[in-house]
Amino acid sequence: MSESATSGSGVRGITVASAFAGMRSVAPVVFKAGCPDCRGRFELGANALRLAIGASSRTTFYSFTCPHCGVAVRKPAGERIIELLTGGGVSTLRLHSTV
To answer: Cα–Cα distance between 26 and 41 in angstroms, integer?
Structure first.
């Protein structure tokens, strides 16, 4: 579709290139984390984290694998952590009650 193209209703169209003109690439989001096992401190990309949102604070957590020692880490996620992780593109699993 070109910039001068019109739809069947006579409305002027827009190209993908012009719609995204001026947009800049965005640096990937990284999250600082720590391992309770080996005490390592590191940064993780959104794809290295998982967020599970359950019905209670006990079933709402984020998890990752420590890049230093390989242990699976699970930490509680309050409202602010949920906001930061979802805003940063972390995959989210919503847990449903079976009751």
So the answer is: 25
Q: Give phi and psi for 28, each to the nearest 5.
A: -65, 145
pLDDT tens for the chain, 99 residues: list them.
444 444 455 556 778 777 777 766 667 889 999 999 999 999 999 999 999 999 998 899 999 999 999 999 999 999 999 999 999 999 999 987 665
Q: What is the pTM of this model?
A: 0.68
Phi, psi of 47 (to 5 degrees): -70, -10
